[in-house]
Write a structure and sequence with these properties.
alpha+beta, 3-stranded antiparallel sheet, 3 helices, 5 strands, flat
Length: about 150
């Protein structure tokens, strides 16, 4: 199941992307956020797909950020050897972890404001992972796979 957010920034419409078009989710969810991406939220969408209306003119709408209001954006820097080499570094022995603020997330064709004093601007493609259940103090990898959430 592919989900997307279409429309003007701050007013995106949550949709399911199908081979036949875009189905409007706004009757069952306000937006695509952590609640919708939970197992229960995704099950609710799956159960509703047959009754969702088609979003007319969806192809003409802006593609928004994939998720609304992420709670945290945790990044891993220099996470592959070629990237470290292009910056003149060796790959780190331990992951370099840093945070980005939620307002840095954007749609694939949104403009990016470059600071006036920037002398070199770099870019890269990012992969996002959404953790489906909240958990705390698990004792083993098995517990992580079977935890109903806490």
């Amino acid at each position: 199941m592919r989900l997307a957010r279409l429309g003007t920034q701050g007013h995106e419409i949550p949709v399911v992307v199908t081979e036949d078009g875009y189905l409007d989710l706004s009757e069952i969810v306000d937006d695509i956020d952590h609640r919708v991406l939970s197992p229960d939220g995704l099950d609710r969408i799956r159960e509703s797909i047959g009754s969702l209306p088609v979003l007319e003119n969806a192809a003409s709408l802006r593609i928004g950020a994939p998720i609304a209001r992420p709670g945290a954006i945790i990044c891993i820097g220099m996470n592959y050897a070629a990237h470290a080499a292009e910056s003149g570094s060796t790959p780190p022995e331990r992951p370099i972890i840093f945070l980005k603020t939620p307002n840095t997330i954007g749609g694939p064709y949104d403009s990016v404001d470059i600071p006036r004093a920037s002398s070199k601007t770099d870019w890269e493609v990012e992969l996002g992972v959404v953790i489906g259940q909240r958990a705390l103090y698990l004792d083993s990898p098995y517990d992580a796979a079977t935890s109903p959430g806490t």
